[in-house]
Amino acid sequence: MREYLETAIIAARAAGALQKQRFCGEFVIRHKGETDLVTEVDQESEALIVATIRSRHPGHDILAEENEYLPLNSGFTWVVDPLDGTTNYAHGIPWFCVSIALEIEGLVSVGVVYHPMLEQLFTVIRGEGAFLNGERLTVSSREPLKQALLATGFPYDRAVDPDNNFDNFFKFQLAARAVRRFGAAALDLAYVAAGRLDGFWESKLHPWDVAAGLLLVEEAGGSVSGYVGEPCRIRHHRIVASNGRIHQEILAILALEGRG
Ligand code: IPD
Ligand code: CA
Ligand code: CA
């Protein structure tokens, strides 16, 4: 596992260095959808990460946001968000990260989330704990929900699909201390692991948004599930992650109809 973690760290640092160097510079921005952007730096970061993985583990599979890769059916899948927080990046807001995880026979076993502007490297190996720059992480002990700081996000198709999280946002703004919308789901999860945020929920996320972050939360002693408490997988689109203590309260709010 150490070798795989090392691969993820090398790749995340390389992509992060590129992102930092090009931050607020000139780069091409394309629209994937009306509000969904992709920059040249997303693509270049993915190329760097994929090259690093390929050079060290040529037989492994890759599931990444910006390109499709030929399936090798190896049982080892690298799950890569080369730049999580693209909207922030494109607007010159220094809140974005690289997220890389390795799934072995369907189980996420290694993860890295790297915030290049703050040089914060979150690392995790299943069964060995979660770390930030080498320091062990534990989730917060804050409860009840009324005193909790939460984060969430909204899907890119929010204007056309009523399943857009607006109702939940309204309910949690009243039920919790506050709700943040930072714009990088992988960092939200890493911050739950670090005990800075107490909980997180979001729907319509992709495996690359959450694979590393969910393992960080679990290994920091937190809880992860779907919206009705079902076990959470990275291909699950409705995610709740918390310090554990407020998990049931979060699920109860999500179960309320309408604006509660
Ligand atoms: C997005 C961010 C955002 C979340 C979106 C994601 P991207 O990822 O994580 O916080 O709300 O759902 O798609 O597009 O910046 O990689
Ligand atoms: Ca993402
Ligand atoms: Ca991305």
Give the integer mean of the pLDDT values: 95
Low-confidence stretches: none
Would you identify the CATH architecture of the largest domain? 2-Layer Sandwich
At CATH level 3, the topology of the largest domain is Fructose-1,6-Bisphosphatase, Chain A, domain 1
Count the beta strands.
Answer: 14
Give the biggest sheet. Answer: 7 strands, mixed
CATH homologous superfamily heading of the largest domain: Fructose-1,6-Bisphosphatase, subunit A, domain 1
User: Alpha-carbon distance between the termini?
Assistant: 45 Å
Query: Which structural class fits the helix and strand makeup?
Result: alpha+beta
Question: How many domains make up the 3D coordinates?
Answer: 2
> Widest sheet: strand order?
3-4-5-6-7-8-9
Q: Would you kindly provide a brief summary of this structure?
A:
This protein is of the alpha+beta class. The protein has two domains: 2-136, Fructose-1,6-Bisphosphatase, Chain A, domain 1 (2-Layer Sandwich); 145-255, D-Maltodextrin-Binding Protein, domain 2 (3-Layer(aba) Sandwich).
